[in-house]
Amino acid sequence: MAGSIGSALMATPRVLAFDVFGTVVDWRSGIARDSSRFLAQISRSDIDSAAFADKWRGRYQPAMAEVRNSVRPFVVLDVLHREMLEGTLFEHGIDARAVDPVVLDDWSRAWHRLDPWPDAVIGLTRLKMRYPIVTLSNGNIALMLEIARRGRLPWDAILGAEVIRAYKPDAQAYLGTAAILDALPAELCLVAAHHSDLAAARRSGLLTAYVDRPMEYGGAAAPDRDQHQEWEWRADSLTDLADQLGCD
Q1: Is-contact 227 208, C-beta < 8 A?
Q2: Which of 47, 171, 218, 243 has its CA at a distance of 20 to 30 angstroms from the CA of residue 41?
Q3: What pLDDT digit, counting tens, does each position of 188-207 carry?
């Protein structure tokens, strides 16, 4: 158990809202697994699939920044994932136009086929016994729904970027979610494995719970480690968080 920071003195949250990629599901292993198969199909097994996954994910924030900065209208993450895939292929000297569109479509949907971390389902199930649990993800609804059904994730509601029409860490992503839930920002707790996400949530008035996922980047240091703060709760897993929040 990692322990919490003064949690006994804090108000209990009314609702728990979860980041999904990296916090609840292991994106890197899933994207590497599928990319290995597709790279073989296009005769590029020489490319390391885990490194390919990292480069694909590395385009995530820049792609969303164009929407946040009004460079382009809002589009769902599935659209951005396809564009990010084409950009990653180009980075490896592969022209996406030369790849079968059916293959590209299936490859870009690798994000729909991610598996939960081993503690995720039991942890969420325990937390749900006491709190409403919702997604607060940049993933679109169809994407989140497929991940949930594949992994048996017991969400009470799927919320996030597509519902609010804003990508995290835009403040509206957090405040809009609280409003939809008829909750004050301070009654909503973001659960995430990313310090940058939690920092933005805290600036918007939310409670914060950090879940450590040391293998999210394959054991490498997280890119936002410099944004670490003393969060209201800090846990080693979702089952540890359930223990700290008094969930049987």
Answers
A1: no
A2: 218
A3: 999 999 999 999 999 999 99
